[in-house]
DNA sequence: CTATTCTTTAAACGTTCGTACCAGAAATTT
DNA sequence: AAATTTCTGGTACGAACGTTTAAAGAATAG
């Protein structure tokens, strides 16, 4: 038993660079050669580390989801209630600097919806991860059924608002709606 | 001045068939030849009517948006207030039979977000059309700023919930969140 | 040092892509 | 009937695609 060890760090380094590329240049027409050229490696370096195009796409979806979750998860954990967590999440995700990242997010999300078997892992986690975080933000005193309902509504509303913001760029209008939503959260009616 | 007239009906007939194809077979890898084979026409028939691949994609986005809007617009007009309109829209769009259509919707939406110049028309209308319908549903007595805010929130929330439903298929949970949202709409707090 | 495995690049393969060109059939006006 | 334009299908072309193969360099274990 000998030989050069597998370089997992190198794979992740390449993957992050590919995700960066997809953020900037789009996801729908991604192909080996332009990506490799942009990263200044040979196409076969990418093929070697990712195996096939299909595997690369799955890896991109996984890494992007991971990145987005990581950027907000710890922030959510520090909040004392759902309203605060939702506001923190909104303020984080609606930053102009992250717009391109979320445009890619919705692009890959839509693609995953049309190929659910190929991207099953993404679809399994893209809601569930946030559900877990937003359930936790409500503490142990909220009934599970209510916590689920509230978490679901927060995820849906924030994603829908983000979609609108990325579409229209009408920040004043979208922020107004976000404030309205976050205000109702702060004053639960039941 | 003579010659065979342009057959616009034929173009629309083909376009609808292409959209149907995209609903069933996905949008990301659409190409002339498989579509033409499925429609039992030559590839050149499609090229002749749509000009180029880019134009075809734009036409697909436009037609899909048009279809979805048409299926709901008149329904919304018949409602007497925003809560009723929102509920009608949700019941319409969350039908299992229309799931594939909305998976395509989110797929093309995501793609449009990463190529905003190419799909500017789609992006200009995909929010604005619904804004107009949901502003109208609130009647003339609601202040414009409030009507905008409420309409924005309804669009975002319903789209976010639909995204969740298509992702997880967890209808009970998503319906619960939808009911919660629609209930808050029925009892406006300010 | 040797053996082994991983990493990287270059070259080439067959396939599919979008598009252009051509010719015939169909539909309209004069 | 003649002229003109659209519609359709067959063929072909160059480009780009994903993938495979072969070979050289790098890093580990014995």
Automatic annotation (TrEMBL), chains A, B:
Residues 8-68 form the HTH tetR-type domain. GO terms for molecular function: DNA-binding transcription factor activity; transcription cis-regulatory region binding. InterPro entries: Homeodomain-like_sf (IPR009057), HTH-type_TetR-like_transc_reg (IPR050109), HTH_TetR (IPR001647), Tet_transcr_reg_TetR-rel_C_sf (IPR036271). Residues 31-50 bind DNA. Keywords: DNA-binding, Transcription, Transcription regulation. Gene3D superfamilies: Tetracycline Repressor, domain 2 (1.10.357.10). This is Regulatory protein TetR. It comes from Pseudonocardia dioxanivorans (strain ATCC 55486 / DSM 44775 / JCM 13855 / CB1190).
């Amino acid at each position: 038993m000998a030989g050069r060890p597998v370089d997992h760090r190198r794979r992740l380094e390449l993957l992050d660079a590919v995700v960066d590329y997809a953020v900037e240049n789009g996801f729908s027409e991604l192909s080996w050669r332009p990506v490799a050229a942009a990263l200044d490696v040979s196409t076969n370096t990418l093929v070697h580390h990712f195996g096939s195009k299909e595997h690369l796409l799955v890896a991109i979806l996984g890494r992007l989801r991971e990145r987005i979750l990581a950027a907000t998860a710890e922030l959510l954990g520090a909040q004392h209630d759902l309203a605060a967590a939702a506001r923190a999440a909104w303020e984080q995700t609606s930053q102009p600097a992250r717009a391109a990242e979320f445009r890619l997010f919705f692009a890959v999300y839509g693609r995953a919806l049309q190929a659910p078997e190929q991207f099953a892992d993404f679809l399994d986690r893209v809601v569930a991860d946030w559900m877990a975080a937003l359930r936790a933000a409500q503490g142990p005193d909220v009934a599970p059924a209510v916590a689920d309902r509230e978490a679901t509504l927060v995820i849906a509303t924030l994603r829908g608002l983000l979609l609108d913001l990325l579409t229209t760029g009408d920040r004043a209008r979208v922020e107004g709606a976000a404030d309205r939503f976050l205000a109702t959260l702060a004053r639960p009616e039941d």
